[in-house]
Amino acid sequence: MSDLSIPLLEVRQLGISFLREKSFIPVIHGIDFQLNSNEILGVVGESGSGKSVSSLAIMGLLPKKISAINSGSIVFEGKDITHFSDKEFQKIRGNDIAMIFQEPMSSLNPSLKCGYQVAEILERHTDLSNKEIKAEVLSLFEKVKLPNPEELFNKYPHQISGGQKQRVMIAMAIACKPKILIADEPTTALDVTVQKEIIQLLKDLQQETKMSILFISHDLLLVSEIANRVLVMYKGEIVEQGNANAIFEHPQHNYTKALIASRPSLDFRLKRLPTIQDFLNNSVSSEIVSSEERKKNQEKLYAQQPILEVKNVDKEYLSTVGLFGKKASFKAVDDVSFKIYDGETVGLVGESGCGKSTLGNAILQLDKATAGHIFYKGNDITKLNNSEIRKLRKVIQLIFQDPYSSLNPRIPVGKAIMEPMKVHGLYKNDTERKAKTIEILERVGLSEAFFNRYPHEFSGGQRQRIGIARTIALQPKLIVCDESVSALDISVQAQVLNLLNELKENFGFTYIFISHDLAVVKYMSDQVLVMNKGKIEEMADADELYANPKSDYTKRLIDAIPKG
Q1: How far is CA 234 from CA 35, 240, 256, 391, in A?
Q2: Which pLDDT value is given to residue 462?
Q3: How far apart are CA 561 and CA 515, in angstroms?
Q4: How far from the centroid of its chain's Cα atoms is residue 198's Cα?
Q5: Three-class secondary structure of residue 56 per DSSP
Q6: Which residues are bridge partners to 69 per DSSP?
Q7: What mean pLDDT is predicted for residues 295-311?
Q8: pLDDT of residue 383
Q9: What is the number of other CB atoms lying within 10 angstroms of the CB of residue 151?
Q10: Of 108, 538, 176, 481, which Cα lies nearest the Cα of 350?
């Protein structure tokens, strides 16, 4: 347990401003909290709530010239570090206070070997010899449970998995045995099983070293699995703080209640997920989809002919191995078969590298299958020529994971939505297309005012709505959603999932819903396919699969979902 009598870090009435159009606008409004010795404090809130900005202030990493601490103080071990110089911060940064960032790929240097990057920290902050440093790095790699430390020491970041990269980052952060570790969304981009391993690793390291951890996340369920205490941030203010279990079981503030309820439940299926706005307006609906309703709907679905049939599909890649370029083959998709029915949502789950996205790309004809057949409405689409594939693009569409990189930053969003309509010859002229685009924007919860704005002017949730608008502009029949909500905050995710279900009802869409978030897949899907190493491990009705998983792999995936 934590020694609550010794505050290791005290943040008192902290106010931070950022420069916007020639004046400083407050983004953090007089927040107060403390981190005690030997404790894990969870900081929860969505994008823009001020979590990361507060942690950057503690590290002395706020961007110069465009930010300012305009009130309050940050006190570490009784010493006010609020206005330390860069030189003073360098002495404590990495040494006493360390940080694990959200995205290990952009935090690690791609041109340096993993072992050297950790060794560099020890060279800078210790008097150890080169031999002692290497031994210490290998010991750290063992401590963070990296396989084959000797081999990994000489590997570059691109040669290891996402979970392994995050472990290298943790090894770097704990190299100098810091008193405080700030973990900023350290598991956001990771599979549910890897996420569970990283959470357990941080817990074990904390118990072993007695360091204090500031664990930042937008996922309250996840935080409740690791933290002793939790504080909830909303719009630059702390709206609630206290014991983790108490906050999770008896939230007081409507925003906290919304964060808990916006995440799909594994126990029941709401007709509509509640959003932050529903809670703030006291208009939460708790209408549940009954098993009778579900059964009736599925009887109707499966009485039809399948809209898509995948038969014995393989996707094989060849790679060059070794000095003399010997070719080795790797099956990313291995003898996969299943059917999808008109108006159905099929969930596709599995860990990174299991073949989910490769299978999605084969269905979309973006990457041709090596063997097998894919029938859309009875026609084998693996045999189509380029002009036929172009026609197929109108009826089988994709919603991308990252809407920002799929939109041209130099084209206003209205034109970006009109563009595919023009390519496929929809509507008579641009006037008709513009009217249809405005109608679609309103359909996805945006307005005509957004027509001439550029992608950078929108939030992540709004950009995802634009991506959806662009997809539905072609009136497709089958839509592949590839991790299309994984980068979104919990409540924005709830809004987008509600929108996808609403559009499905109104337009009769059929979805292939690819995700590593099993709670979301269960909520959205009629049936679920579990993929593992290119093969279908298990296929069943969504509720049945979660209630009675047959394979050990599926059980492990379900067991890894944060339960709170």
Answers
A1: 19, 9, 9, 46
A2: 85
A3: 13
A4: 15
A5: helix
A6: 16
A7: 94
A8: 93
A9: 12
A10: 538
Query: In the numeric block, which tokens belong to residue 89?
Result: 């911060």
Residues 6+ apart with CB under 8 A from 421: 427, 433, 436, 437, 473, 474
Q: 526 vs 298, 325, 339, 342, CA distance in Å?
A: 8, 46, 12, 12
Q: Residue 324's pLDDT band (boundaries 50, 70, 90)?
A: low
- Per-residue exposure over 228-263, b if at least 16 CB sit within 10 Å of its own CB, e if not: bbbbbbbebebbbbeebeebbeebeebbbbbbbbbb
Distance of CA 284 to the CA centre of its chain: 25
212-217 and 180-184 strand pairing: parallel
Distances in Å between the Cα of 272 and the Cα atoms of 267, 285, 360, 542 are 15, 7, 27, 17
CA distances from 329 to 312, 318, 320 (A): 18, 4, 9
Give CA angle at 309 (545, 361), nearest 5°.
85
Q: Which two tokens stand for residue 408?
A: 């041209």
Cβ atoms 490, 273 nearer than 8 A: no
Across the strands, what pairs with 224?
A: none
| Whole-angstrom distance, CA of residue 270 vs CA of residue 285 | 9
pLDDT at position 321: 56
Count CB-CB contacts under 10 A for residue 91: 11
Task: List Cβ neighbours of 462 (8 Å cut-off, separation of 6 or more).
Answer: 446, 450
Chain segment 519-539, per-residue pLDDT in tens: 899 999 999 999 999 999 999
Give the residues across from 67 on adjacent strands. 18
517, 533 Cβ separation under 8 angstroms:
no
Q: Which residues of 341-359 are buried (b: 16+ CB within 10 A; e: fewer)?
A: bbbbbbbbbbbebbbbbbb
Cα(90)–Cα(172) distance, integer angstroms: 15
Closest CA to 203 of 231, 159, 244: 244
Q: What's the CA angle centered on 68, arms 62 and 69, to 5 degrees?
A: 95
Task: Kindly state the average pLDDT of the residues 445-470.
Answer: 86
CA gyration radius, the chain = 25
Q: Give the model confidence (pLDDT) of 184-225 as tens digits.
A: 988 876 788 888 888 999 999 999 999 999 999 988 888 989
> 362-385 pLDDT, tens per residue?
999 999 999 999 999 999 999 999
Distance CA 65, CA 51 (A): 20
> Is the four-CA dihedral 129, 134, 138, 143 of positive or negative sign?
positive
Residue type present at position 183: A
- Residues 352, 191 contacting (CB under 8 angstroms): yes
Nearest CA to 349 out of 529, 541, 549 is that of: 529
Residues near 174 by Cβ (< 8 Å), separated by ≥ 6?
98, 140, 143, 144, 181, 205, 209, 211
Task: Please tell me the distance from the alpha carbon of residue 313 to that of residue 393, in angstroms, as a whole number.
Answer: 20
By the 8 A CB rule, do 527 and 346 touch?
yes
Range of weakest confidence among 52-66, 318-332, 415-429: 318-332
- Compute the C-alpha angle 214/220/226, nearest 5°: 50
d(CA 220, CA 564): 8
| Long-range contacts at 22-28 (CB < 8 A, ≥ 24 apart) | 24/68, 24/70, 26/70, 26/236, 27/53, 27/236, 28/53, 28/54, 28/57, 28/236
